[in-house]
Amino acid sequence: MAMAYMWRVLWWLSGGMTAVSLAGCIELFEPVVPGSSRDFLVVDGFINIQGRTRIRLSHTSDINSTTANAAEAKAALYIEEEMGVQYAMRDAGNGNYVSDSLLLNPAKRYRLRIKTALQREYTSAFVDARVTPPIDAVTWKNRPLGIQVYVSAHDNDSRTHYYRWEYIETWEYISPWNSLYEYSPPGPLPPGNYILPLGVITVRTKPINRCWATEYSNDIQLGSSVRLAQDVIADYPLRLLPASSANKLQEKYSVLVRQYGQTAEEYAYWEKLKKNTEVLGTLFDPQPSQLTGNIQNIVEPGEVVIGYIGAHSVAEKRLFISRAELPADFSNFTGYEQCVKQDSVTNPGLLPYYLYPGTQMLIDVVEVNQTKNYLIAKTECVDCQKRGGVTQKPAFWR
């Protein structure tokens, strides 16, 4: 499971308290949240019966902590088939463990065995394996609140009934100004108002105005057909992209949807996790419950362990949405609305003062009436990488 799902749950288990404002005269109240010395193992992942299994081991941290959850390093992990073989996983570093690409028998039951560096042993319960049915379609429609992405699936054999989805978003965007030149300052700026040498101006060989950014889903998406006549999920609303979606729809947008077919027990775990992480709010909301997974310390079965290990395959499908496909009147916020001005510098000796701090960049050099004009703009309006993207086009992009 993604760790973004876990923070409220871990807060609850660590003894956190919720502040509630009641109707009437409202006064800001910031409670002192007591710390906790309790340290729980977190097991994140599932057994992939048709590919590589990836498991991450970490530990809960105090709610007041500003550091990332500590990884459980140098552990030994195994995938075990009931009354059968054992498959070792290798340490990929930083609490991550990965298996070879496996093709496991879906008629068998499987579990995960963990032995930490301190010789503490854990196992998950043996679970039935599930072959996840393929995704029928990932579609989109223009709705009043934005672009709504849907996912549809079905199982002709009516063996799935319980579905979970994750998605990875990737989008292409372009900064307003294209920098044609790179500028290297002459050296450290001396004190006083000195006119410095121009520095070095060279033609830029790698564009920095077109980028691709990637973001992983951090919410829990569940669907069930158990109460329907057929094992069908039709147009499940997976992701809403409002016009203010930080330029995701500026040029081209793509979403890779991953589907997991689950057992009723695994689905119930994720459903409880969803309630614990998303429903918390006021005294009138359902209060969080103890999140019990299927992982247990062999010697100390009463130890709290966070996580649920299921066994299933993964189905994937990708959707592309280009700007040309959107309605002409679709209002799209790019995040570059403030980038409306370029500056021009005619005295090359002043360029180091404009460009040296890194707040502005050289865009172009234009000769007007035998005078060179050096066009410059704010760095964040020129270098798309400042918004977290990369200039390398993804291999799957089209």
TrEMBL record:
Check the record and name the InterPro entries matching this protein.
DUF4249
**Source species, please?**
Hymenobacter swuensis DY53
Q: Which Pfam families match?
A: DUF4249 (PF14054)
Query: What is the official name of this protein in its record?
Result: DUF4249 domain-containing protein
Would you say which domain of life the source belongs to?
Answer: Bacteria
